[in-house]
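Fold this: Flagellar biosynthesis protein
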Amino acid sequence: MTEGRKKAAALRYDQGKDFAPKVTATGKGLVAEEILQKAKENNVPILEDASLVELLAALNINETIPEELFQAVAEVFAFVYRADKQLKEDVQ
């Protein structure tokens, strides 16, 4: 495997439906670039955390994240919440 290849993972969490966030996509190289491009096109905040991506990439698509990752993923969702809130304030 080539070092330096970009990796990406996407998560989904529906508070009313899901017990915990689920992995919706993972990839490296061109697939990672496509995941990031789709996020940008849909104004989804992007957080870079190589260690977390490595752990998430080991999970299956639609797999609920394990309890050991709850704290790290909670920090990601807090980042997304703050970014989304800031974007809404900037638009007003």
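The CA atoms of residues 26 and 57 lie 6 Å apart. Strands lie at 7-12, 22-28.
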